[in-house]
Specification:
The chain folds into two domains: 5-99 and 122-208 and 241-291, Arylsulfatase, C-terminal domain (2-Layer Sandwich), CATH 3.30.1120; 296-337. The radius of gyration is 30 Å and the shape is flat. It has a four-stranded antiparallel sheet, with helices on one face. The protein starts with 9 loop residues before the first helix and ends in a 21-residue tail after the last helix. The chain is built from nine helices and six strands, in the order ααααααββββββααα. A hairpin with a 2-residue loop joins strand 1 (152-161) and strand 2. It is α+β, with helices and mostly antiparallel strands and 362 residues long. Pfam families: NAP.
């Protein structure tokens, strides 16, 4: 794995602590406010109840000590298995990109391939297809992006320790869109175990002229009578997966932190959470299970889980509908009986009996 700072633009790697002070301070203020509210709750308790709570807090402390040991052992276990995964990922890379051929494939021409001028190697569009199968990532990939993402050869990730977090690496073959062979995205976390994102840093993409996918060029005709007869060119930012490498940033140090209102902080926080969601999806779902996403099996599994929950809800709704129908039948029969019997209900054999609704665990 390449050195972190070597893959990052100098300006991004040199961000100062003040650059992210606005958001971090806002988060700390919220945490302090919540902590203050908890202290207020304790002060309202009676002495006996407070004493019981203090014993509970001691139990919580013992739990936290065990949890710390668990997290340490989990980190060691993850590191152990990450090393065991690596040879499998390497083999996957070689097959996907046609570096090696799998056993059992001969050089005999297939009828459909007889007229083909070039031999198809590896698994074309492997990573593009895998990412488009995921509901989170497919929303980020535009039709224009697909041309560039077809050159994606591999995606890797690794943990970083100083500061804590993780880094994604996207390896590209030589392509007509940008010069970079590797695009990286690094997430710095305030707390690695209970993830609170501090900031994210992406590679500056070196686009070839006219090939930038994150911007679109608009040309407007000059107004009548204008001295300038040339069309007016305007560049606007547009939707693209490659915006992922230009993550939302906290205000610069020359901004006045006091001017950041709650709405701006909340909007920025939401953007950062969305950005982290994309990164963690690639890390936790796409990289380890890429083949299942490529074939669609992983997406089908997710769909079945969702539909399974919906079926339970539909069953409950059906039960409710049946109960409502039964109630309506009761009312109709009761009305007929009252008309016939002078106000006394007459229950025949065909009268539906009332039953409690069935409950199904979801």
């Amino acid at each position: 794995m390449s050195d972190q700072n070597a893959d990052l633009p100098a300006a991004a790697a040199a961000l100062s602590a003040e650059d992210r002070a606005g958001l971090v301070n806002a988060l700390k203020d919220k945490l302090q406010l919540l902590a203050g509210q908890h202290v207020d709750v304790l002060e309202t308790l009676s002495p006996k109840v407070r004493q019981r709570v203090e014993v509970l807090r001691d139990l919580q402390g013992q739990h936290d000590e065990l949890e710390t040991k668990f997290l340490e052992e989990r980190a060691e276990l993850e590191a152990k298995y990450q090393k065991l995964y690596e040879p499998l990922y390497t083999k996957r890379y070689e097959i996907v990109n046609g570096v090696v051929e799998v056993e059992g494939i001969t050089d005999e021409a297939v009828p459909d391939e007889e007229n083909s001028t070039t031999e198809e190697k590896g698994v074309p569009n492997f990573w593009l297809t895998a990412m488009k199968s995921n509901e989170t990532l497919v929303e980020e990939i535009t039709e224009r992006d697909e041309g560039a993402l077809k050159y994606l050869k591999d995606i890797k990730w690794c943990r970083i320790q100083n500061p804590k977090g993780f880094k994604l690496e996207f390896f590209f073959d030589t392509n007509p869109y940008f010069k970079n062979s590797v695009l990286t995205k690094t997430y710095h976390m305030i707390d690695d175990d209970d993830p609170i994102l501090e900031k994210a840093i992406g590679t500056e993409i070196e686009w070839y002229p006219g090939k930038c996918l994150t911007q679109k060029i608009l040309k407007k005709k000059p107004k009548k009578g204008s001295k300038n007869a040339k069309p007016i060119t305007k560049t606007e930012k547009c939707e693209s997966f490659f915006n992922f490498f230009t993550p939302p940033q906290v205000p610069e140090d020359d901004d006045d932190d006091d001017e950041i209102d709650d709405d701006a902080v909340e909007e920025l926080q939401n953007l950062m959470e969305q950005d982290y969601d994309i990164g963690s999806t690639i890390r936790d779902k796409i990289i380890p299970h890429a083949v299942s996403w490529f074939t669609g099996e992983a997406a089908q599994s997710d769909l079945e889980e969702i539909e399974g929950g919906d079926d339970d809800e539909e069953d409950i709704d059906d039960d409710d509908d049946e109960d409502e129908e039964d109630d309506e039948d009761d009312e109709e029969e009761e009305g007929k009986s009252q008309n016939k019997g002078g106000g006394k209900a007459q229950h025949g054999k065909g009268q539906p009996t009332e039953r409690p609704p069935e409950c199904k665990q979801q």
